[in-house]
Specification:
cobalamin biosynthesis, Nict_dMeBzImd_PRibTrfase_N, alpha/beta, six-stranded parallel beta sheet, glycosyltransferase, Nicotinate-nucleotide--dimethylbenzimidazole phosphoribosyltransferase, 6 strands, single chain
């Protein structure tokens, strides 16, 4: 397995420290009290360092929307039936879903990729088919995927980033949709954080107390079945993850290797971010965290990643919507950074 994924250990590009420092100095010279625009200043400085530019910008924004189903849905861990995944695939492709509407509103280009929903939809307009199976295995009872599927999912994320770069992308957002996918994300996070299921299991799409208990038991069963001393991060992903989580892990690593800033969405994408950083710690330097998920385990992942998301809007939809919500603020931060006058330009006395 590792021979096929040797690229995972390719070097991560360094952040341009000189560009970031120049941006920091410019922020201190703008006609405002130093630090008075708070984290908007931080956004511009981060992007300047990532892009090595005095004129940072998130645009063009490219979204990789990974669609897949999860066998663990059989354990009754979602309020929605699994057939909703294929229905939402078509809804997203037609432009009717939140992620689609928001992508149009913020001018982001979105590529929808079917990695393996449970029912083969056949050709669907605006959907790229890279199917790896009819969903993953039920992690409470068997491994999520084979080694071959793991390799293919990692490579699907890698090739998605390469397509994004060829289209001129300057910022990447990964999203996901698949009924039950907070459960494998929780299992992956528990394994990587060495925490019990009870610390991270949350209501997902809105589970009641009984559903939450089923979900906790499913994650506990998965951890008991698949955790073993000496298992690598990739082996854990193959056993506990989903095609969407694994593809995003591959996408994040590739983006950092290619110098493409990453805007991390919510709970599920944060599990992929955690996996990517455990595989390649310097990937963390290329990540901007959009929002705090309402899922309770998200805080623990953010602590492990030393991350402080910019938004806290009670969001828990996924699909890249949290990342999309931050894009206008990133644009504002960059426009202010570039266009605001300095004290000397404006003839304003600097204190």
């Amino acid at each position: 397995m590792m021979e096929a994924l040797l690229w995972v250990k390719d070097p991560i590009l360094p952040i341009d420290a000189m560009a970031a420092e120049a941006a920091r100095r410019r922020q201190d010279q703008l006609t405002k009290p130093r630090g008075s625009l708070g984290r908007l200043e931080e956004m511009a400085i981060k992007l300047a360092g990532m892009q090595g530019s005095s004129a940072p910008s998130p645009d063009p924004v490219h979204i990789l929307q990974f669609m897949s189903d999860h066998g663990v849905a059989a354990e009754g861990i979602s309020v929605y039936p699994q057939e909703v995944t294929i229905q939402m695939l078509r809804n997203i492709a037609r432009g009717g879903a939140a992620v689609s509407v928001m992508a149009e509103a913020v001018g982001a280009r979105m590529e929808i990729i079917d990695l393996g929903i449970a029912t083969d939809p056949g050709p669907v307009e605006n959907v790229r088919s890279e199917r790896l199976g009819f969903g993953t295995g039920n992690i409470a009872r068997e491994p999520a995927m084979t080694e071959e599927q793991l390799v293919a999912a990692m490579n699907a994320g890698r090739s998605g980033v390469e397509r994004a770069l060829s289209s001129g992308a300057r910022m990447l957002i990964c999203g996901e949709m698949g009924i039950g996918n907070t459960t494998p994300a929780t299992a992956v996070a528990c394994a990587l954080l060495d925490r019990p299921a009870a610390d991270l299991v949350g209501p997902g799409t809105g589970l009641d107390a009984e559903g939450l208990e089923r979900k906790r038991r499913a994650v506990e069963a998965a951890l008991e079945l698949h955790l073993a001393p000496g298992r690598s991060i990739l082996e854990l992903l193959a056993r506990l993850g989903g095609f969407d989580i694994v593809a995003t892990t591959g996408a994040y690593i590739t983006a950092a290797q290619r110098g493409l800033p990453i805007l991390v969405d919510g709970f599920i994408m944060s599990a992929a971010a955690l996996a990517a950083v455990r595989l390649q710690p310097e990937v963390r330097n290329w990540m901007i965290f959009s929002h705090t998920s309402a899922e309770p385990g998200h805080r623990l992942m953010m602590e492990a990643l030393d991350a402080d998301p910019y938004l806290n809007l009670g969001m828990r939809l996924g699909e890249a919507t949290g990342g999309e919500a931050l894009v206008p603020l990133l644009r504002l931060a960059c426009v202010v950074h570039q266009r605001m006058a300095t004290f000397s330009e404006a003839g304003v006395t600097e204190v």
